[in-house]
Amino acid sequence: MTRVKKGVNALKTRRNTLRKVKGYRFGRSKKEKQAQEAIFHAGTYAFAHRRDKKGDFRRLWNVKISAALAKEGMSYSKFMGALKKKNVLIDRKILASLAEDQPEYFSRIYKKVNQ
């Protein structure tokens, strides 16, 4: 079998790895092995935090809805239960945006549910 010199490919791989870790601190931005490990960990954290972000936003929406309901004198849990009983199919994201940006529409929904 003929000999294959892989200098070009090895350099390309190394260069791409080090480009991904540009801005990292200490050996992680300069040493190939540490850079590979840093890339692996960064990917793991990115995956986990994409999942966490969904929960973070849901908690934020709950707080916004709860704050708008405090003005009306109702608790969050009772409001959500009343929404379910009345078959109002508006999700928390929409409710939170209405409570924040258009309180008059939110109060209409509150009155419809609270009848």
TrEMBL record:
Binds directly to 23S ribosomal RNA and is necessary for the in vitro assembly process of the 50S ribosomal subunit. It is not involved in the protein synthesizing functions of that subunit. This is Large ribosomal subunit protein bL20. It comes from Candidatus Taylorbacteria bacterium RIFCSPLOWO2_12_FULL_43_20. InterPro entries: Ribosomal_bL20, Ribosomal_protein_bL20_C. GO terms for biological process: ribosomal large subunit assembly; translation. Belongs to the bacterial ribosomal protein bL20 family. GO terms for cellular component: ribonucleoprotein complex; ribosome. The lineage of its organism: Bacteria, Candidatus Tayloriibacteriota. GO terms for molecular function: rRNA binding; structural constituent of ribosome. Transmembrane segments: none annotated. Keywords: Ribonucleoprotein, Ribosomal protein, RNA-binding, rRNA-binding. Pfam families: Ribosomal_L20.
